[in-house]
Amino acid sequence: MRNKVTVDIAKYRTIDKWAPKPGDLVIKHGWITRTKWFGIVTGCQGNFVDIVVDGLPRLVIMSNQAEIDTKTKSFNLAEFMASFVGSYTVISIENGEQIIFI
Fold first, then answer.
1. 90/13 Cα distance (integer angstroms)
2. Measured between alpha carbons, how far is 79 from 15 in angstroms, rounded to an integer?
3. Would you call 14 exposed, middle or buried from its count of C-beta atoms within 10 A (0-12, 13-18, 19+)?
4. pTM
């Protein structure tokens, strides 16, 4: 007989609880429009967050400075907070723990 072990596979919160900071990984899922991109937060100012965006995580991470400047887009935080559930996923580190915002 097997013993069933129940564990939390991830700590998560709703996206409206997200406080962006540089280094956060952002994933955009466009279910209807089939838009998909990956990004890394590079800065925050007021209600806007700057994110380096590309189609693959590897392309974001391996970009040189000129590419980063070209790929950086500014987003209004209200877009994230009011988004359809699952449209954005953010992976962040808070107090040494990985948190997934959905």
1. 10
2. 11
3. exposed
4. 0.83
8: which 2 tokens? 């939390």
Per-residue pLDDT of the chain (102 residues), as tens digits, is 566 555 667 788 988 899 999 999 999 987 776 778 999 999 999 999 999 999 888 888 888 999 999 999 999 999 888 877 778 999 999 988 899 998
User: How is residue 12 written in tokens?
Assistant: 């998560």
Spans of all domains in the chain: 11-101
Tokens of 30: 């466009």
Phi, psi for residue 85 in degrees, rounded to 5: -55, 125
Show Cβ contacts of residue 22 under 8 Å, excluding neighbours closer than 6 positions.
41, 42, 43, 44
Phi, psi of 44 (to 5 degrees): -140, 135
